[in-house]
């Protein structure tokens, strides 16, 4: 029996199957520092224990996207080692906050299967759940990937396609227990703009650009213990159609989020991710820019001091975003666009219900 | 109203104005490890809790320059976003030591303004103060920068130029409470040379060289949450006169300090920085070397076990320092010189007053 | 007197001499995170406090190789600053586990000297011991290096060549106190293969490859406070015969160990290192692959829940290991091989003595 992990092929998945993923991971202050060094985030709640305590928390919580990357990374060896393409994700809900010292693990349930007509591949839908050492859910999301069949003659499974929401209903957004923005210090947070100051339809150019180096995206992706080999092996990738190591899509999401501070500086937490597309590959040497559009605003019944903005953030490579590059006249996306992310962010409200 | 930060222009500053900067930052063991990985410092006091405890402290303090970079980084969005040039700093005094877990924030007071005769720019002088979560000052310094006017027709302010000291008076040097070098273990510290062993006028070639990579200086500068875009955006900088990302000057200071271990290994703390010039830009690929000269020696009334050396450290790019490159015969600086830093370091004394 | 460290030359060493090395180092969660970011290790015991607690420990121990690199790095300024070549190491025994917060220092005893017939160099044998802040030994090993004489006329010392074991006797392997694999969760650990599942003679291709960047190996080597200048100074190394910075051999060991997870995922600890050769230099841009062979299996009298596998791991550059590259027909090593490491790893046993 081979000792190496062959990964799962399409025919290995069954609807209802539960996959308990390796490796549990204690997230520490060291990870938080590296995350800052890799992206340069400046959101106050994650940056300073004292600020988080003024907002009712025990300490600065770990950045939501760092939690996402760690939880996600664990699914790769079991779900997407033989994947052809990562097709999408939906219903990404952040639940219990993670603090340094918490240990996170992930399990996934197969919730859908659909063989492609070519008989060579199929789409696997999984709901993945990250839990902490107390068993509380920290993150829950659906992902679907196209996976190769090992044996093309293996019979097609019964087709099950889950019904996925277009967006996370804002009433489902879970804020950290005790979070209270009623004494929010906007000066210290670095932005004068509260929930009420944003309008649906408003577009924001985040102005700044960040160039990516090979060492950075590889350190990030290893930090998340994500083992997808396309990110790490230049000797193999030189023969690929791009001839380059591909950058983990999550690295671009984190860069775009950090860049969005300039314009969304009070977006202290990500409430949920509704969906996202990595519309073009990125490589070392690319400079990432971003802009955002406010899609929707929602009050939060569970917290009178905060509101949720539904944001669409577009990231580009080697193209400033002052012209808000997006779909072109012919309906095609501008080729500089590399990410189109739809998510809820949480901001303090100016007019608090007292 | 635009949601992005336009920064302040020269006419936005008023003498006496107080700027409370974002973002507070908890400095952790993770930051300390990254700092070691980026520069390779080996000063014992910052490296080992046990060594620091033998010297009377509760734990290893955070490197003075890491504190400086974090405090400094916060001033960039408010003070120097529209700067043409960083002209200098003076009277840099390190006060309460910072330990992992402390949260630092910065505020600045405008202490001087001087419009340039071209009417397009002016010099802004600020005194910036970093404080910890207990409100104690950890760092205090003056910086002056040349800032663009937004509206060239804006009237010139009354000229106020602060009177700045050439050097920090050594009687102002503040050592960590409890610091006691009477049992100093020079073997463990890695240098047999005490305060008494250095002579004014002595020159030391620090021998070693360190080559800089893009990923390193960008990770460092993001760790400090310093957002100056010239360091990060190759897509924009390719059109600049150098065609390259500029390296944050503080990165060179930290490299020079780490290199200075070879010759100044017992310089356990920086007491103060008297002034410094970044005399030429540095780019990834440059190898940094350094040499130092002892300018002055001072006893410390507040601590009988330590003495202060006033040091001038010169860093060069792509040029070893065995010939002590400096001003040339024609009075011009050797073009390989990139940094000229004047500061006080604290060393244990061999002959302790008991 | 020059203030810089000249290092020791061959004639400076005496058999029996004790060298107490600078600089003590507190190993923290920050170092652990960086180690993960640099190599991407996924061994469960080091990754999660909760997993380590299920295995009877108080917390996740620091990776054995991170401890090795820190302990080793300290010996460089005193032992190998004037070395021509690092010839080998043997009898590397890991003792007390290191946990974040522990402070490590190193001292070495000269145990052998042998001048070379050319009268210009000699071989120095040292036994180096790393201890923690309680004085417990964490690591003990023998290394021998070829060191230059400063004065070729200095008389040759009496020749003393220590008798070194071919391998560490497995009865000497010291496991962390309390370690108990009787409830080992192989699913969470990421591998179904226990001690009993491996056969002597079995070969495992670890499949994955990892490309090295300059920033990565330099950050790693500085993290270990290893000052050997060949790793850092491109300005000097451009004139060397390779024209490149050499990568610290320990960086390759750590990469090979991380890659070995794919096939040896339950090898939770390194019990001892029997010996190793860095058979060719590696440079940034090289992609490292690895394969392993099981040389020997041993029960551990001190722990019924674990067994020891003696493993030989071969790492290559720019060459996949599916053909197990090794010695060629003419007896020469395949030129792609860069590392040949012989060591004991500790795995849980499936059939526990209850």
UniProtKB/TrEMBL annotation, chains A, B, C:
Q: Which classification does the entry list for the species?
A: Bacteria, Pseudomonadati, Pseudomonadota, Alphaproteobacteria, Sneathiellales
**Species assigned in the record:** Sneathiella chungangensis
* Name of this chain's protein: Mesaconyl-CoA hydratase
Gene3D superfamilies reported for this sequence:
Hotdog Thioesterase
According to the UniProt entry, its GO molecular function terms are: lyase activity
């Amino acid at each position: 029996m081979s000792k190496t992990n062959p990964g799962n092929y399409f025919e290995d998945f069954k609807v209802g199957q539960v996959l308990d993923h390796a490796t549990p991971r204690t997230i520490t202050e060291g990870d938080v520092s590296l995350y800052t060094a890799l992206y340069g985030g400046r959101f106050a709640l994650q940056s300073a224990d004292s600020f988080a305590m003024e907002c009712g928390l025990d300490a600065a919580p770990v950045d939501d996207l760092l939690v996402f990357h760690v939880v996600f990374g664990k699914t790769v060896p079991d779900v997407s080692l033989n994947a052809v393409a990562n097709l999408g994700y939906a219903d990404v809900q952040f639940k219990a906050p993670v603090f340094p010292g918490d240990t996170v693990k992930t399990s996934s349930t197969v919730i859908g299967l659909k063989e492609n007509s070519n008989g060579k591949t199929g789409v696997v839908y999984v709901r993945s759940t990250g839990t902490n050492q107390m068993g509380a859910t920290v993150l829950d999301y659906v992902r679907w990937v196209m996976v190769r069949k090992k044996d093309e003659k293996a019979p097609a499974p019964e087709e099950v396609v889950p019904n996925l929401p277009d967006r996370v209903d804002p009433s489902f957004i879970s804020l950290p227990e005790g979070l209270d923005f009623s004494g929010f210090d906007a000066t210290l947070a670095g932005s004068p703009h509260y929930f009420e100051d944003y309008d649906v339809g408003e577009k924001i150019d985040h102005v700044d650009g960040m160039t990516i180096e090979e060492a950075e995206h590889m350190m990030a992706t290893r930090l998340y213990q994500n083992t997808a080999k396309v990110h790490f092996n230049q000797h193999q990738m030189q023969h690929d159609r791009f001839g380059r190591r591909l950058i983990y899509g999550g690295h671009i999401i984190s860069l775009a989020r950090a860049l969005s501070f300039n314009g969304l500086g009070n977006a202290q937490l990500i409430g949920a991710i509704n969906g996202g597309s990595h519309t073009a590959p990125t490589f070392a040497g690319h400079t990432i820019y971003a802009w955002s559009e406010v899609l929707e605003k929602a009050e939060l019944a569970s917290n009178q001091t905060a509101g949720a903005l539904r944001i669409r953030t577009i990231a580009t490579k080697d193209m400033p975003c002052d012209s808000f590059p997006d779909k072109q006249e012919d309906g095609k996306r501008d080729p500089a666009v590399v990410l189109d992310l739809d998510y809820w962010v949480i901001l303090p409200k100016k007019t608090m219900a007292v």
